[in-house]
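Dear support,

I submitted the protein below through the web form. The confirmation email said the job was done, but the results page showed an empty box. After a refresh the structure appeared. I'm attaching both so you can tell me whether what I see now is the final result or a partial one.
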Amino acid sequence: MSRDLADRASLFLQKREGIDKALKLIRYTARLVAATSPESELQRRCSAFEKSVGVSRKAFRLGKFLQDVNAIRHSRTTGYLAILELIAYGGEGVYYFIEQLAWLIKAGAISKESEEELSKISAWAELLGYMANICLSSIKIRNINRRLRSLQGKTEQTQKRDSSSSSISTSITSTHASQPGFSKGASEGGAAQDVSAQLAMLRAAKATCVLAIVQDTADALIAINDIRGGKDVFLRHPATLAVAAWFLGASASVKIGGHVGTSMLS
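What the results page shows now:
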């Protein structure tokens, strides 16, 4: 199938995901050091470095909202899942689009008059996207658990059947073992390996979904702090924000590798 301009742009922009997440981890590591260090030259340097990397990431996300637009365009889901995907991708897309405007404001290309309003809109869109993502991940976990129970039930039935027929299999094996081309349990062994592979894949996908929920929850808490203007005593504490942000940076790298595998389980 031929790709249009939006498809090609989205594919091109996906190639920088790894670098963006590496910058995220570097930035929040610097924030963690700055938040937990006493007033010193190191603390000031880490704080300045963290802000500089933050502005760089905004520029690096140029056009990233197109990926969310493309995801909505090519979505094949229906019903309530379609609504959740629209909120998830739409919220994230609005957030990334406003991030570009925030970068232009930081660069001095746009007036700072609307910076606070744009920040609030961005935080609300981000929060809605995270909540929808949490719902989608929970649905994926429910579907994975259903498939896990089904496969485990089939495995238990196969084990019981093999155990009850072990004496018959032993006699047949002793009779035909000398015949050429005889392979004991070849088909059964292949089927067992296939089921084991499916179980391993489903468990890995479930772990990725759980990690995604934890990550989106932490992101949502940071967004709530931004919406409330940093009024929450616990959420606004530098150490709390730094630890949460560092965890997000570290877990985002894992999430990139597992996201593709979970997408086909919805």
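Response: this is the final, complete result; the empty box was a page-load delay. The mean pLDDT is 77.
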